[in-house]
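Structure tokens please, single chain.
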Amino acid sequence: MKKLFICLLCILLVGCDKLPIKRSKDTSETSEVSVVDDPSVRYKAYLSQINSYEDTMGLAEPVEVYSGFYQIKGLSFMKLVDFQNDGEEELLLAYLQDEETSTYLFEIFGYVNHGVKLLGSGSLFSTDGNVQTVRLCTHKDKTYLITGSEDSFFDYSFLTISNNKMTIKKTIKGEMDEEKAKIDGEDVSYDEAEEALREWTANEQDYVLNYECDLIISQNDSTRYLLKAGASSSSTEPSGGDNTYILPQSNQRKLKKREVKNLTSTQLMYARNEIYARHGRKFKTVSIQNYFNNKSWYTPLIEADEFSDKQLTTVERYNVNLIKKYERAKKSA
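Here you go.
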């Protein structure tokens, strides 16, 4: 009997080797993803990155090098930019790398696989006299950071983020004296290069670090405020009370037409200004100012005359224009 039991057991064990085994999927080679269900998680992570840099470098501090020419020491520049046009912004930072040459370094961070990742870095755009500028442009609904230099020549590279990596989308170079030019490494006429340059820089935002210190400090304050507001809110806002938004995600993703078209003229007006209020902008119209004063998330920081639309993200500018479109339609109806 004992021998029979052992034989049966052996048969069963041998048979097990022939059974199909369900193996877990190997995820070691899966591509990196930057999808975040709750945008507040990304904003908290970006704030942590900024705080870490400021602990090391200090806050942005303009220092006059000579008459009218400044360096911004510390963490010089910060801005949310939706390079990938997916509604999830990357964090663009810049800081002084070399005081003697007044050279700045930029870094672009994204939120990838549940953490902040450096996606690319390099030198800012430089012009005669080593004036350093953060240059951003929008071309065919995509946002690019412009690097390179310009003097008696121009050397432009248009950088963006694709698949969570920094890539060069376009290069345009030219020698003004010799009227030689190249686009993406191919010889072209000087006129062709100039035309391409005008096309690619038609919709541009510039932040000149050596001269526009007030604008840049205001931009930094706006970015910090936007991140704090986003970090303290989830993707769904509570209903009722003074903590509510008309369009809770208007700073996080491009709005759908159906979300806007049924709002009243008054709701559209407040929804549009809501985007500015998140940045701490003040309002000249008393009724609008009083409306946002009653919101617990609102902190008035920047005078209306000192605020620039440059301080809005690509997503926010898109939503402002979308809301304006429906405001105009309501008025003309």
